[in-house]
Amino acid sequence: MAEYSVVGKPVERTDGRIKASGSAKYAADLIAPGMLYGKLLRSPLAHAKIKNIDTKKAKALKGVKAVITGRDFPGVPFGTRPDTRDQLAMPITKVHHFGEGVAAVAAVDEDTAEEALDLIKVEYEELPVVLTAEDALAPGAPLVNEFSKSNVAYFSDFLFGDIETGFKEADYIREETFSSQRVAVGFIEPHACLAEVDPTGRVLLQASKQSPYITWRHMCRALDIPVSKMRIVNPFVGGGFSGKHDPFDIDFATVKLAQIAGRPVKTVLNYDEVLAAYRQRNAMNAKLKMGLKKNGQITALRTECILEGGPIAGIGPFNIYYFGAFQNVPYKIPAIEYHGKLTYSNRAPCGTVRGQEIVLAQYCLDSMLGIVAEDLGVDQVEIRYINSVTNNWKAPNGLIVDVSGLQECVRKCGERIGWKESRKSRPKGRGIGFSCASHPSGVRLGGHFGSSVMLKLLEDGNVIVTHGGTEIGQGANTIFCQMTAEVLGIPFEATIQGASDSDTTIFDSGMFGDRCTYWTGNATINAAKDLKKQLAEIAGKELKVNPDDLEFKDSKIFKKDDPGVGMDFLTAVRRAYYEKGSPLYGKGYWAATDIDIVDWKTGRGNLAHGLDFIATGVIVDVDRETGKVTLIQGVSADDAGQPIHPVMLDGQVNGGSAHMTGHALLEDSLYDEKGRMLNYSWRDYKQPTAMDTPEYIVEHVHTHDPYGPFGAKGAGEASSCSSLAAIANGIYDAVGVRIKDLPITPEKILAALKAKAGKEGK
Amino acid sequence: MKINIKSNFVVPGVEEKEYAEFNRSQMTLREMLEELGRLAAPAPIEYVRPGARVLDPDDWEVDINEVPYQKCDKALDTPLRDGDTVFIRILSLGGG
To answer: Which of A399, A621, A658, A687 has a CA-to-CA distance to A668 between 20 and 30 Å?
Structure first.
């Protein structure tokens, strides 16, 4: 294992003190001279034709500076793929879900803006609603999206390996169905933005965005302006978890209001609006058929999955793709048949949530594994161990596992949670559940998908690190500063995080899929090496040493085999600036060009490097009288390669687990029969708090990824993928009832216990 | 004429086969893409924006017989021959 000075050390986060002291400026904190306040008028109906919007009275109200509707935009649709462009900036002919923004106002203060909303009269013609995938696929179902002639927004059919032989060779075959509810994303900071337009008409948008590049491109398309006519700057962002990639009605409306009013406009949503009308995780219905040998070795898997995704395709094609293509890990399954379908509906638009739909796929797969292990009499740890992928495993779709510590993760998790001991003795109502998972460190999408980093070395020896990733709370800024300091041999404190600004930053394609550490990390190393080379040439000339023979360490540059021949790092910097007038910029970029571009049609190919692995065990207590589930302890053994910042890595692993606790046990976006959301406030929508989460323990399984920065892999999403099934399996182990439709509520447990007792004649 | 269609996505209109047949003896790449788009009816795909001289590089990458179309003599207006292979790669903007 390599010894590092900064990498692998729990340095202080670059944003830690600023955030903890409350002085960080988020989008809602921004102020511009002459700024107006924006508000959106929302549809009370889930599906209706817009017959007319009368804004005259609102426009006439004193203090109102602009009022807009969907008709103020060019009507150019946008979407994740050129064949799924089914969204408009704001609706023109119909509304698609409860809470959709139909008009917006900019006024001198928030009260006036609110008052103006009340003066806008919208004439609707109500349409029948589509609430579920079943509704959407029913013959004669009303069509949800005006850009599509079907309620099937997307589909995939994949076949990997010889499925017939796989089932023929099985000693045991079982089929099961699973379902999952819609859940909110769960970031802390609601959507907010400030838009300004300069005298040339160029737009500046400062917004709470997870993937500013995606927002930028989609917005420019829908506004019908070139990307050079918009500048996008990211202030501090209070979490993303996949809920802040796209531009929303708030972003479009705020820009349009600023364009019309000729003054800056800020719009800040409240959380009720976010819960009612913005991105959620898809509802899922899945059917699995698994074949196994007597010893628990999987021989074949057939999966059907239907996701209900709201009125737009959005990133749904990715959700369908990930669900199917990544069933090739974490287990060695020689044959997989997959059929996935995404349907439109009149509920809030879906994106995804941390872990993407690998979370749902793994919930199904590992719940199934829990079921069949018991059927076959195979130990729960053993069945996961024998099926775990290993180094250089080539999955049937062509995905190559470069390095896998999964078997070690399974072993460590089982030991640490006390699995064997628990089989001898445990309190009544207590159980342990397991699940594994794997998540890629970014896939190759085609188009703009690389990462780039720019370093500016100041004359005082400090380095400004400007990277294309986005700090959304995960610690990206800190680890790129760590990597820069490590390569240049300077203290972490000599690095400064640069701004995230499209005028000075080459944005990454987006912050998703565990790609940031891996891709932007490699770009950071390359940028630091570029800077190092420039300094080595300056120092080498003065020291009369071949630049390749120089070492950078402890803020000094010296001859490798003769440390006495050297100079201070700062001296080399001063030589560049003072004597040569030479600017010191380091430029680095990286893209995994040796992996295959996503093949949407087949799901085949070597799809990713840096597969990180996790084995999660959860101890649960279930009260048979009330059905209440208490999580006692969660243990995750995690292979994220070389930890760059071990404390933040723990936080990522535990955060993913805690996040999914709500999905497993508490959360559910509820709608009435007309598609109106019922529980869009924190009072009614139950997300877990610290009181709901158990003690978490992380065991790192330290591997070295051959392509990762310093051997690191991505992290943070695998634990969310392994948590749902671990909890479901734990509940079964505790009280012997299997709840296959999430969330696992006390009511469902009590009903299942009652049914079980009835069957057993108790 | 028959054009072999390769792609990294399910091409609407030719879902079950790897070629498209057109009822004409000669056509350019542009014409072929326009007709292919119409095969996706009732939800046609716009491969080429009306009047565009090039494909939107944010949307599609297209090769003719393994040569990027931009490198062919007449780019979008390159004549196709019966049996030619057109590779259409869809590009996406987003992720989870």
So the answer is: A621
